[in-house]
Amino acid sequence: MSKSTILSGTDLSKKYGDLEVVKGVSLAVSEGEFVCLVGKSGCGKTTLLSLLSGLEKPTRGKVTLDGREITNSSEDELALFRRDNVGFIFQSFNLIPTLSAWENVALPLFPIKMTSEERRRRATELLGKMELGHRIEHLPLALSGGEKQRVAIARALVNNPKIIFADEPTGNLDSSTGEAIMGILNKLHKEEGVAILMVTHEDELAKTANRLIRMKDGEIMS
Amino acid sequence: MNLRYMTKELYYQKRRTLMSILGLSIGIALLIILNSLSLAYRQAARVPLQEIGADITVQRSGDVPKELAGPVFPCSAVTIRKEEVEKIRKLPGVRGVGTGLLLWVFDPNRAWIVLGIEKENSIGPSVLRSSVTEGRFFEDGKPEALVEQAYARQFGIRLNDTISVADKKFPVVGFVDASRAAKIAVANVYLPLKEAEDLAASSKELQSVSPYAPGDVNLLFIKADQEKITGLASEMKGILGDKATVATPDSFLKLLGSLFALSDKFTVAASLIAIIVAVLIAFKTMAGNIAERAREIGVLKAVGWTNRNVVSQLMSESVIQCFMAGILGLLIALVASFGLSFMKVNIPIPWEMSPTPHFLPGGGDQIFKTLRLPVHIPWNLAFFAILLSVIIGGMTGGLLGRHISKIKPSEVLRHE
Fold first, then answer.
1. Domains of chain B, residue spans
2. I need a surface site. Which of B18, B166, B189, B229 has the fewest CB within 10 A?
3. Where are the beta strands (DSSP E) in B206-262?
4. Whether the model pTM is above 0.90
5. Cβ distance B403 to B368 under 8 Å?
6. Can you say whether the dihedral through the CA atoms of B250, B252, B257, B261 is positive or negative?
């Protein structure tokens, strides 16, 4: 049975002044698919990821996420849409330094009306899955790079997203920790059926994905 | 607004939090101290009059007889006629009137400062009833005298002695210690008002320059509605003419000459400057703090916080910090006002109100009422300062929050 498309970008372009960073790109990601966007630094892959995730608006083209066209949505509509449907993993983790591991995981739930116990239960459960059950009260400063990224993955999962956008998730980690993180992402994709669109410049990491898309100078090569 | 996030942010970012709180608290403390000092000077200026139970004193200046013999009026206090007193009594805002008759009595071997006082009145020199240190106060209808304690000691006057003032005998029934009371309306000898009236009425020298009839007086002490004091002072001048001397708390305040006593405008201007400084400090510190958190705000927006979520979070942090700054400012002001309350202030008594003839030894010296500056922080000023802090916090947090919430997450989250 063919899976339906969770994310599609059609004829996407992004210009900063005269500089066109993304040039007429079209791509689609199916439900539960693990897609890697590969290319050299500066080829426009992070910008494309921002356009597809609704963090940035394209100069031209349209993005449809879970059947809804988000290109013309307002900033707040996009924020709410991301909160309900999308997870993010960043290269530099982007954890809030003053919040403990479980509070960082629960960060997307803070504006939602629910009890603190409920948030904590959900966050603790996810940290347990990331084998960080013993670190829930630790501040990011007390965590290793790999642990920080696992907290970030748990945060990306806290809202049960349909798709996770990962921007160089192993870029700040040593190779063995990076492999472990990739293992977790693969497991998520296989066991939880979450679609993943990952940006990386390392071909070796991309091999584990279902599909590999190469970018060069703002265009998709293959 | 998430309370847990807010408290953790304030707790773990101690340097930021302390800087914001300290900066604003200094401005708030300055505002409270300035206004408390201004109030203290105003209260101090009321004391000389308050001590004789009045808000206003009225005299009229005139001439002194060529020959100083027997009872005469001081040149600063000549006759105020009974009808004029009645007119003043009926002015709207006048709550009560006390009267006195101040005489200089030049006997062949002694000069007395004599004050005729009413037996019963909470306004004016009859309040000296509470300053009797030995003996008793006047009894009805008896020609008797009270003598100032220091004067009695100096001239060997004892209780139950009989003194002769302008050839009239008065038994000394008590001693009065007015040294701690007001420096106005004090004398060597105090007589019942009627006795002083008789002395004045029978003095040819006095009558020659200032016609006097029993029932007239030369000192008026007036209790009035606080908000009407200034208006009443001009009305009284209208009734008594150009030579009237009307003393109010404001006239004492002017004599103090302090910057705070000079005018309300100075206090208002200084308070405004303090508020502006407080706002600028709060704004600058918090703008720096929020700019440092641009990346964090980007994360919040990326994971689904709306602009409103971000603004309310930052605003609540700012309000709490400013509230704490208000409390700290109030504490600083309380400590400062405690220290300032040990400060002594000398309130000059105008020469017209000094009972001593200026031509006698020491009579020309400036006299002062010395008291500790009554610095305290009224609850409404404290409440206003805290409320102002919270408003500053709300406005600062709201403005800066709205500005920072417009950042695009993609711009601040791009990896290095």
1. 3-46+259-413, 56-247
2. B18
3. 219-224, 244-247
4. no
5. no
6. negative
Is the CB of B15 inside 8 Å of chain A's CB atoms?
no
Assigned token pair, B346 = 């000398």
| Any A CB within 8 A of B292 CB | no
Phi, psi of B347 (to 5 degrees): -95, 115
Q: Is A170 on the interface with B (CB under 8 A)?
A: no
- If you count DSSP H runs as helices and E runs as strands, how many of each does chain B have, helices first? 14, 13
Q: Which residues of A touch B302 (CB under 8 A)?
A: 55, 82, 88, 94
Chain A residue nearest residue B13, CA to CA: A98
Which chain A residue's Cα is nearest to B9? Answer: A98
B405: three-class secondary structure by DSSP = coil
* Residue A98 to residue B8, Cβ atoms within 8 A: yes
Tell me which of A14, A22, A99 to substitute to probe the interface with B (most B C-beta atoms closer than 10 Å): A99
Domain ranges, ordered by start, for chain A: 5-220
Instruction: Please state whether B313 falls in left (phi above 0), alpha (psi between -120 and 50) or beta.
Output: alpha
Fold category of A5-220 in CATH:
Rossmann fold (3.40.50)
Q: What was the ipTM of the complex prediction?
A: 0.91
Residue B45: closest CA among B263, B231, B236, B270:
B263
Residues of chain A found within 8 Å of residue B298, distances taken between Cβ atoms = 94
Closest-CA residue to A47 (of A7, A66, A83, A19): A19
Q: Which residue has the tokens 């400090």?
A: B281
pLDDT in tens, chain B (416 residues): 778 888 888 888 888 888 888 888 988 998 899 889 888 888 888 887 877 788 898 989 888 777 778 899 988 889 999 999 999 999 999 999 999 999 999 888 888 889 999 888 888 888 888 888 999 998 887 899 999 998 999 899 999 999 998 889 999 999 998 776 666 677 889 999 999 999 999 888 888 888 999 889 999 999 999 889 989 999 999 999 888 888 888 887 777 766 555 566 777 888 888 888 878 888 888 888 888 888 899 999 999 999 999 999 999 999 999 999 999 999 999 999 999 999 888 877 766 666 665 555 555 566 677 888 889 999 999 999 999 999 999 999 999 999 988 888 887 776 54
